[in-house]
């Protein structure tokens, strides 16, 4: 079910609403078994957003009353969830703006878009903030307001900030008059390398040190894993990451993080780890994971679905993998796990500099994680020994 949700979101953000609708419909078969509440609630959000888009495209197939009857129960659920915390507030604001744009008043819709942009910015939902700016720009353009340029330019800046390269390029291609075309011309290999060096001068050792200190400050293993995953995404430019470990002959997903909306799935407690076997995951190419775990080699793919040794793999094609980075985690020359990173919106995200930065961070992180594990085991072992001695 999670696979269908993620594919639906990608298609929606890229404006492929018919395809998004097919994936959203596919989620219904798995909804009762979808344990990730964040994804389940995002499914409700994008079901409404996509329904509004399809209503516009299929004008005449459904009347306004039928559309409202379809989407209102979902919006009421989302309102209830949004009242519990900040996670869904930007989405709810987006829903209100889209509903008003499609079915209501121009001035009210414009005001609601500005509210949604402010909330998304406050919550640091960079991709959503960029998309909202693009939506508002298109809305103003269609209304002949002549103020759309500032929103298109801001959308492009935000897409660049969160590395949604495909969104940025699509925007520039759709509205070329608002952008300097030379900024979006293909770069030579030398230009790409120079740009990467500028992005991470001298491998940004200040960031490396600060990140290592932030990880080492966590005393609890689960908190440390969450921090490791956040830092891994920040340093690499990935949108999705998993930490896979080997345990008792099985490969298990220890933690999973998505940068799109800064949502991190907490590591599963030891007693439940069996529920996260690699075979049960729908969002990871298992053949690549096993290859990296078996060989202990790191793997970088610039456009996995179109080139490289795994381009014909059914899972790679089903996931339409683009930028992929797999780093083995070793301890005493033995591979004990691996880091899985991907970006589905852009090719060639994982440059040599970003990969080197991430490798250095993961080397430090694996040492800290092992020390935390040994300390935890020692604390469990010591009381039992004291009880034995007292007896």
Secondary structure elements and pairings:
Elements: H1 2-13, H2 17-27, H3 37-57, H4 64-82, H5 89-103, H6 106-122, H7 126-142, H8 149-161, H9 165-174, H10 189-199, H11 205-216, H12 221-236, E1 240-247, E2 250-258, E3 263-265, H13 286-295, E4 299-301, H14 314-319, E5 323-331, E6 334-343, H15 352-390
Antiparallel strand pairs: 1-2, 1-6, 2-3, 4-5, 5-6
Helix pairs in contact: 1-2, 1-3, 2-3, 3-4, 3-5, 4-5, 5-6, 6-7, 7-8, 8-9, 11-12, 11-15, 12-15
Question: Care to describe what's here?
Answer:
This protein is α+β, with helices and mostly antiparallel strands and 391 residues long. The chain has helices at 2-13, 17-27, 37-57, 64-82, 89-103, 106-122, 126-142, 149-161, 165-174, 189-199, 205-216, 221-236, 286-295, 314-319, 352-390, and strands at residues 240-247, 250-258, 263-265, 299-301, 323-331, 334-343. The chain has a six-stranded antiparallel sheet with strand order 3-2-1-6-5-4, sandwiched between helices. The radius of gyration is 23 Å and the shape is globular. The N and C termini lie far apart (53 Å). Residues 181-203, 261-275 and 382-391 have low confidence and may be disordered.
């Amino acid at each position: 079910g999670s696979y269908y949700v993620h594919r639906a979101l990608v298609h929606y953000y890229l404006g492929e609403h018919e395809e998004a609708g097919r994936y959203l419909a596919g989620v219904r078969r798995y909804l009762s078994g979808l344990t990730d509440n964040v994804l389940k609630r995002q499914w409700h959000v994008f079901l409404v957003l996509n329904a509004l888009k399809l209503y516009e495209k299929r004008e005449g197939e459904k009347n306004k009353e039928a559309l409202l009857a379809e989407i209102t129960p979902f919006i009421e659920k989302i309102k209830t969830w949004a009242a519990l915390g900040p996670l869904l507030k930007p989405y709810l604001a987006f829903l209100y703006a889209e509903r008003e744009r499609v079915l209501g008043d121009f001035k009210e819709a414009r005001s609601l878009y500005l509210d949604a942009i402010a909330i998304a910015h406050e919550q640091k939902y960079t991709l959503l903030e960029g998309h909202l700016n693009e939506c508002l720009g298109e809305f103003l353009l269609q209304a002949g307001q002549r103020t759309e340029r500032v929103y298109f330019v801001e959308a492009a800046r935000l897409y660049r900030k969160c590395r949604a390269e495909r969104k940025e390029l699509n925007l520039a291609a759709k509205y070329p008059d608002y952008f300097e075309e030379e900024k979006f011309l293909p770069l030579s290999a030398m230009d790409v390398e120079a740009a990467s060096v500028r992005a991470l001068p001298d491998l940004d050792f200040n960031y490396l040190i600060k990140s290592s200190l932030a990880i080492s400050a966590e005393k609890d293993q689960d908190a440390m894993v969450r921090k490791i995953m956040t830092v891994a995404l920040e340093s690499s430019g990935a949108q999705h990451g998993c930490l896979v470990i080997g345990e008792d002959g099985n490969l298990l997903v220890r933690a999973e993080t998505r940068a799109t909306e800064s949502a991190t799935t907490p590591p599963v407690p030891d007693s439940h780890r069996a529920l996260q076997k690699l075979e049960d995951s729908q969002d990871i190419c298992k053949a690549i994971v096993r290859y990296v775990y078996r060989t202990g080699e790191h793997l970088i793919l610039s456009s996995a679905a179109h080139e490289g040794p795994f381009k014909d793999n059914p899972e790679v094609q089903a996931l339409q993998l683009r930028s992929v980075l797999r780093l083995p985690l070793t301890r005493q020359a033995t591979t004990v796990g691996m880091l899985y990173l991907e970006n589905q919106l852009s090719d060639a995200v994982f440059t040599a500099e970003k990969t080197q930065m991430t490798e250095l961070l993961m080397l430090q992180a694996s040492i800290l994680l092992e020390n935390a594990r040994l300390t935890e085991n020692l604390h469990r072992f010591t009381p039992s020994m004291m009880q034995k001695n007292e007896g």
